[in-house]
Amino acid sequence: MDFFLDTANLDQIREGVELGIIDGVTTNPSLMAKEGIKGEAAVHAHYRAICELVGGDVSAEVISTDYDGMLREGERLAALHPNIVVKIPCTKDGIRAICKFTDELGIRTNCTLVFSLGQALLAAKAGATYVSPFVGRLDDVSEDGIALVRDIVNIYTAYAYDTQVIAASIRHTRHIIQCLDANADVATCPLSAILGLLNHPLTDIGIARFLADYKKVNG
Ligand code: G3P
Prior knowledge:
The structure is a single chain. By secondary structure, the protein is an alpha/beta fold. It is built from 11 helices and 8 strands. It has an 8-stranded parallel barrel with strand order 1-2-3-4-5-6-7-8, surrounded by 6 helices. It starts with a strand and ends with a helix.
């Protein structure tokens, strides 16, 4: 399973990349706003900066909601860097735009804000490179986000769709372990959730014991 960082924060991306286990980055308009990035020129510069830091795919989301706007914006985003994947919401115009990007423009896409198997089916049929089911937001309304990831992976496998499943809206380390069990292609996570995987009291106790034993002999 690949790890993407779900952030637009350059320090966190740098820290994740230094760790050596980050395969890409996903962003959304909320995450860009959180970093205070405003205006198209600043947004584009920020995406270029992210692409320079990380080796893998970087999802950049359109804010247009109409087909023509999505095409215009998506083409500009895709031209910024070869690793940019245009992130498009799962709406009627969005699915139409994904078809156009896939079939005619050779632009890779991430179909986002996916909350049902039906939406994931349309994303795959449109030829999206990635689909992003939102695990945490489904859990927030008492649905089972991980079950949706598992269902999408099973259906895509059964029908041999190429679209890769990014488990998104990951909130904690337990979600990451559940994504593994659901065979997600990618989990896009906050850095804190990934670093949380390191935590185990027996590791800390083990290090303390090894050091104490070493000091007994070496002083
Ligand atoms: O990748 C989508 C993700 O950023 C949404 O996460 O925590 O806002 O539901 P969240």
